[in-house]
Each structure stands twice: as structure tokens, then as C-alpha cells.
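Reply to thread "Modeling small-molecule complexes from scratch"

Following up on the discussion above, here's a worked example others can learn from. I took a protein sequence and the SMILES for adenosine-5'-triphosphate and predicted the complex. Inputs first:
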Amino acid sequence: MGEVTVQALKDVSFEIYKGEFIVVLGPSGSGKSTMINLIGGMDTASSGEIYFHDQPLHHVNEKTLTEYRRNAVGFVFQFYNLMPNLTAYENVLLSTQIAKNPLEPMEVLQQVGLGERANHFPAQLSGGEQQRVAIARAVAKNPEILLCDEPTGALDFSTGIQVLKLLRDFNKNYGKTVMIITHNAGIAAMADRVFYIKDGRLEKIQVNEHPSEPEEVTW
Ligand SMILES: Nc1ncnc2c1ncn2[C@@H]1O[C@H](COP(=O)(O)OP(=O)(O)OP(=O)(O)O)[C@@H](O)[C@H]1O
């Protein structure tokens, strides 16, 4: 930034395995979003290496990154980012139209409990319902990795637990990798592994031998 150099991540090195449920915890500004954006191919690192299976994501062109994002990655954001002028169904449908091996949009909407609300626009849905549409949209692409940036940050406790349950179901039922970044230490109990980020460094990785069920999580 002008004369100031901000190093968002430093010496960070780790592997994520297929089907893991990872929670990344850290204070504001510690580098969590930067990490998830690098893994999701939304940002490129100024140095270092990132691989998805054997495919490098560093030093690749925008077309390769676009294909990677399109086929391998689903994103869930804190503030849903739904298209306001499309219905719930159309929001999900749109993402399946660019994916290689998508799931049936209506089936996924039913799985998140919104089959009856498919023809409603985002403004006609509550925050929790909008987040469920956003999860359906990400899941319907059938990605290998689901990256979630503060997915429960704007929700009340019980709606947050419902959303965590959906993310956990996707992880368990489809064997997909889920990574959640959050300030909320309570969510860490659900993870197979917890990454603690501080000042751009990966301070510690904690392994949970017995991850909690979403219903047991509290904050
Ligand atoms: N585009 C950018 N230009 C300059 N600095 C940036 C940029 N993006 C992030 N940073 C800085 O990099 C550091 C890490 O930011 P990042 O957004 O990854 O943190 P975070 O842990 O996700 O924070 P929060 O929980 O508040 O979202 C911060 O110091 C931030 O100010």
C-alpha cells in the first residue's frame, strides 16, 4: 500500500486432506481471509507455492485459476452475496450452469429446507434463509472444497447452528472438504483440525480426536 508493505501471511505451510472439516481461528487482521482467498484462487501469493492435488495454483494464468474456482471450489460468505434480482432457485441454478458436474438445484434447495421458498427473492427471505440459499448455491456446484468466510457471523445462535449442521452434512454425506474461518472459538469443537492464525503466522494446529456434533457446539 504505497510506501507501506503489509505482509498478510508469513511462512505459512500446511496440507489439507480430502474430506476434512477444518476451522481457522484468529483475531481480526490476522490473515484468515487472505489464506482462504489464496486457497480459493481468488488471490495470488507474491511468493510461495500452493497446490490443489498436483496442480500448482501459483504462477498460473487467470484462465487456469478461473477453471479451478469454477470446478473445484464453492464459497460461502458472511453476507450471503446472493443476486438480488434472481429467486432462490435461480441463484442456485446459475452456479450449476457453470459447473462441470453439478447437483440438481431443486434437490439441494430441498436439502437445505427451502424447497417451498424456491421462487422467493433474497429480500423476501430471512438472513438465515439467505445463508441457506448461499450454501445450496455453493454445494450445488458439487465442488471438492467448500470455503466459508464467517458463515455464521451475521446470524443468531440457533440459526448459526442450523447453518453449521448443513456444512457438516455436506462434509459427511458427500465426503467433501470444508474449511470455515471464524472469530468464534465455539465452532472449533466441530473441526477435525483447528488452525490458529496470529499476525499472519500459523501458530498452532490442534487435532480434535472427537469432533463435536453441530448441536453440541455453543458460544
Ligand atoms: N488488499 C489489501 N491491501 C493491503 N492490505 C491488506 C489487503 N488485504 C488485507 N490486508 C491486510 O492484511 C492483513 C490480513 O488481512 P485479512 O483480511 O486476511 O485478515 P482476517 O484475519 O481475515 O481479518 P478479519 O477477521 O477482520 O476479516 C491485515 O493487516 C489487512 O489489513
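What I'd highlight from this example: The chain is about 30% helix and 15% strand. The chain has a mean pLDDT of 94. Questions welcome below.
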